[in-house]
Every structure is written in structure tokens, then in C-alpha cells.
Write a structure and sequence with these properties.
elongated, mainly beta, 46% strand, 139 residues, 2 helices, two-stranded antiparallel sheet, 8-stranded antiparallel beta sheet
């Protein structure tokens, strides 16, 4: 198994020391909107691309990988280090794409799904939580 990592041009890659827990939850969004006519007939309209959302559950993510070296006040990452919080706020905030390599060596172009990154402190210097990544298919 490979190491899970995030990469983007001009940024220090974020390489995780722990891989997500498998199986990973996957949801497919069709890009179709269904509406109802006044006569009660359903109509389907393609309104966007197909999207795949993968929920990566991390257990025991180290504090250094979660937010180590990140200064919340100045919103900056310490030189020579990288963290998930810095990726979420500065490197590739929601709406910005980056490369995600999973534990099996498959690389996808993704972005964060949603505007919240929620983790819990589960032990001394360890965090558990879910990172939801959105991949647009066919564009």
C-alpha cells in the first residue's frame, strides 16, 4: 500500500502517515434535477456534471499532520511543514482542485466537499475525522 497524499502546484505535498480506514464511503451525484410540472408529470433536467464524493475516515491522524505548524491567527503554515488545516484554508480551500493519491496509488483530481473540516482530538496528539473529497467526472 502507498501513502495517501495531496499535491498541488507550488505547494509542499501533504503525505499522511496513516491511510484512511477502508472501505471508503462513496456517493455518486447524478447532476440531474427532477421537477414536477403543473400537470403532475416529473421532468428530469441535466444541470451539472456527475460528481463522486469520497469520505476518507482518518483514525489516529497525528497533530503535526492535522494542524501542526499552522498559525490560526495569521493563517499561515510554518516553513518546512505541511498540515491538513493549511490545505483546507490556504492551499486548496473549497472550490479549488488538487491531486489526491489514494493508498493504492490511484491519482484523482479532487476538491474539498463542503466548507467545514471536523475532527476530534481522540488521544494525546491524535485526531479522528472525515475528509470529504469531490471529484467531477466527465469534464
Amino acid at each position: 500500500m502507498s501513502e495517501t497524499k495531496f499535491t498541488a502546484a507550488g505547494a509542499t505535498p501533504l503525505v499522511f502517515s496513516v491511510n484512511p480506514v477502508y472501505p471508503v464511503k462513496v456517493a455518486v451525484e447524478s447532476g440531474v434535477v427532477v421537477s414536477m410540472t403543473e400537470a403532475g408529470t416529473e421532468r428530469a433536467h441535466e444541470k451539472g456534471p456527475v460528481r463522486v464524493v469520497r469520505e476518507l475516515q482518518f483514525v489516529g491522524l497525528t497533530a503535526s499532520e492535522f494542524d501542526g505548524g499552522f498559525d490560526y491567527l495569521s493563517r499561515s503554515q510554518a516553513q518546512g511543514s505541511q498540515s491538513l488545516v493549511n490545505w483546507f484554508i490556504n492551499v486548496a480551500p473549497p472550490g479549488v482542485s488538487f491531486s489526491f493519491e489514494d493508498a493504492f496509488g490511484v491519482v484523482r483530481t479532487v476538491g474539498f466537499q463542503g466548507v467545514t473540516l471536523a475532527f476530534e482530538l481522540s488521544g494525546a496528539g491524535l485526531y479522528d475525522g472525515v475528509v470529504a473529497l469531490r471529484e467531477v467526472i466527465g469534464q
